[in-house]
Specification:
Layout (H helix, E strand, L loop, with lengths): L2 E7 L1 H5 L1 H13 L3 E6 L2 H10 L5 E3 L2 E3 L2 H25 L4 E4 L7 E5 L3 E6 L6 E6 L5 E6 L1 H9 L3 E4 L2 E3 L5 E3 L2 H12 L4 E8 L17 E2 L1 H9 L7 H13 L4 E6 L9 E3 L3
Parallel strand pairs: 1-2, 1-13, 2-10, 5-10, 13-15, 14-16
Antiparallel strand pairs: 3-4, 6-9, 7-8, 11-12, 15-16
Helix pairs in contact: 3-4, 5-6, 6-8
């Protein structure tokens, strides 16, 4: 079975010119078939502010009302995506920018209101609230067959964090989730390595010590690390996505720095 590398890069890296330049150079050097999935939340926030649109976040997640949906569609599917495509073309990579709506590669449904524990504005006491995230999509299906057809004719997909519901509605969708679902959909066709590239060198045993990278995680090791407090907070959803991917047939997931996407660094996540 041929190998496929899927790189997910966050908005913080996309916004940092030095990091982005290095990542695109390293991505272009990866041999074989590959896909780039990107974020762009920081650029969307800046663009919204210039347009007088307030960004609303709850527990680090963006509320996407009708005005913000227009912003993220323009920024993710247009500005960020096409800049990445153009720069990859300059590296000799035949890139094609896509959202989930293009060629019907990723469908989702509009997220219903969810109950979340939040911190009140006048009190530090946690409060339970029903949050409507607006036009946010939770993935139902990624079309591995269609993506594999593109890969087989030499196309490198560059996927923006937008999906559609099959009824004409674009939805803002978490890029980590999109990368994971894309990897799972392509696992029957390729030996897939999914790499989450961000600011840290991997999953850290001590959050302030970049030398404390946990080299290997399985579901059992992860559960022990959560139980003893070694892993907590915002890293947990990323690891849960990674574990779901390997349990669905993805060969391995790597969490690493954006300048170390060769698969030889960071935290490797495999099935038990």
């Amino acid at each position: 079975m041929e190998h496929l590398t899927i790189i997910k890069v966050g908005g913080a890296v996309v916004e940092d010119e030095a990091q982005l330049t290095q990542l695109l150079k390293d991505f272009s050097a990866i041999e074989g078939r590959k896909i780039l999935v990107h974020g762009g939340g920081r650029r969307a926030t800046k663009t919204a502010a210039r347009l007088g649109i307030e960004s609303q976040m709850v527990n680090g997640r963006r509320i996407t009302d009708a005005d913000m949906l227009e912003v993220v569609t323009m920024v993710y599917g247009g500005l960020v995506n096409k800049n990445l495509v153009a720069r990859l073309q300059a590296h000799g990579i035949n890139a094609l920018g896509l959202t989930g709506a293009d060629a019907d590669i990723i469908r989702s449904h509009k997220r219903p209101p969810v109950a979340l524990t939040t911190t009140g504005s006048t009190s530090e006491e946690p409060q339970e609230a029903l949050i409507d995230f607006g036009f946010v999509g939770d993935v139902d299906h990624a079309n591995g067959n269609r993506l594999s057809q593109l890969l087989e004719i030499g196309i490198t997909p560059v996927i923006a964090p937008l999906t559609h519901n099959g009824e004409g509605l674009i939805l803002n969708t978490n890029a980590d989730t999109m990368a994971g679902e894309t990897a799972k959909a392509l696992a029957p066709y390729y030996e897939v390595t999914l790499i989450y590239a961000f600011e840290k060198p991997g999953v850290l045993a001590q959050p302030d010590d970049d030398n404390s990278v946990i080299p290997l995680l399985t579901r059992d090791i992860y559960n022990r690390c959560v139980a003893d407090g070694t892993i907590s907070g915002g890293m947990m959803p990323k690891i849960e996505n990674a574990l779901a991917a390997v349990e669905a047939g993805v060969a391995r997931v790597v969490i690493t720095r954006a300048d170390a996407i060769d698969g030889q660094h960071g935290t490797v996540i495999i099935k038990n």
